[in-house]
Every structure is written in C-alpha cells, then in structure tokens.
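Reviewers of the previous submission asked for a worked example of the structure-prediction workflow described in the proposal, so we include one complete record here. The input consisted solely of the amino acid sequence. No template or homolog information was supplied to the procedure at any stage.
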Amino acid sequence: MAYGDYLGLDKVLSAQAPLSGAHDELLFIIQHQTSELWMKLAVHEIRSAISAIRANDLRPAFKMLTRVARIFEQLNASWDVLRTMTPSEYSHFRGALGRSSGFQSYQYRAIEFLLGNRNPAMLRPHDHRPDIMAELEAILAAPSLYDEAIAWLGRQGYAIGPDGERTDFRGPRAKQGSVLAIWRQIYVAPDSHWSAYELAEKLVDLEDYFRRWRFNHVTTVERIIGLKRGTGGTGGVSYLRKMLDVVLFPELWEVRTTL
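From that input alone, the workflow returned the following structure tokens.
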C-alpha cells in the first residue's frame, strides 16, 4: 500500500474548496479542518480514558489524558498561524461564510460535554442533524470524565457524598464540599494516595492546556474581527470571554487555596 493511499490523501487534499478568490481563505479552511482532525483524536482519547477509569485501569488513562493535553497544546500553536491573517484580509472572504461558524462544531461540543461542561441548550446548533444530535445526547446521558474520576474515588473508599447518588448527568454538576475535602486529603499526603494524586494532576494539566486554547481563541478572534458579532450569531468576543470563566474540575482548582 502506498503512503498516500493509506492516509487517504486524495480525499484530504481535495477537501479544500474556497468560495472566494481571496488568497487567505485557504489558510482559514485548512486551519479549521486540521483543528477538527485534532479534535477527533481528542474525543477518541477522552472517551478511552473514561472507559479506562471506569474499569479501574488508571495507567493507560494517565497516558491518554496526557495526550489530550498535548493535543490542546498543538491546537494552541495553530492560532499563531491564523493570527498572520489581518482584519483586512479576512474581510475579503468573510461574507462567503454565511452563518457558518466554529460555534457549530459538534466535535468541540462533544469535547465540552465529555469534560463536564454540560448545557443541553448547546444542542440547538446541531438540531438539523439527527445523527449528531443522537451522538451528543448519548454523551450527555453518561458520566463525564470528571464524574468518572469522582466515581473511581468512591470505589477506592473515599466518601464522595452526593456525587455517589447521581443518576442524571445531562445538566451541570454542582460543586461539592465532600469532594473538595477528598482532594485536600490527597494533596496533603500525596505519597499515601499516589494514584489519586496523579489522576488529579493529569486532570489539572488537561484543563490548564484547554484554558490556554480558549484564551488564545478569544485573543485571535478579537485581533481579527474586533468586537463584531460572530458569523454564527453569537456575540463573538463577548461570548468567548464568558467561556473563559467556565471551570471544568472546580474542586481541583479550589483545593489549592485550602492547602
């Protein structure tokens, strides 16, 4: 088998179809296509990590979570390429995008849901695709990565409190003092709780890189379109700034203040 055949390069390299004659539209398309490929891998790794934690097999989960963090490091670097495009250059083809927007990325939505940022209202941008809706609904129906981490703590004998009684995972999870107390116990004596300690740091590492990606996203958007509304109808920069305040694993960040 040839290299190009194995990778399906004919399909990949012919998937760019600019709608304008603008020089920079190809950059915009490739930026977003490659981001979607990295997100496909992130979804695969997060799902696999969830399954491994559910099976009490933490060592492969640690490797997968490290990989997801590095995927977001890679996605972070891609903003540097997009930022070489100026507002003037973007304006040459922005009208050709219509109402299409990164806000409509179902793979990004899957990542948010898998990591625990759950808002069923965010399904609406995808309601024209029953297949995608079914996949996202299935993610919402099951525990998130952080839910599984907390459930694992419960199976190890830690008193996780109300999280142990949850049956509805569709909505946002409430921060729990019992979970905060567990993480504090773990961080105070890591040598006595090493697996839980390592799990905690893998999760923090992942969210750290994810936050950087979000920050670079809003900075890039503001640099290119200022405070104009996004093509998908969101507030653009104002919406993205709100997302900077979302905390995926709240007790893991709060525990640092208590130590």
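The chain has a mean pLDDT of 94. We consider this example representative of the routine output the project will generate in years two and three.
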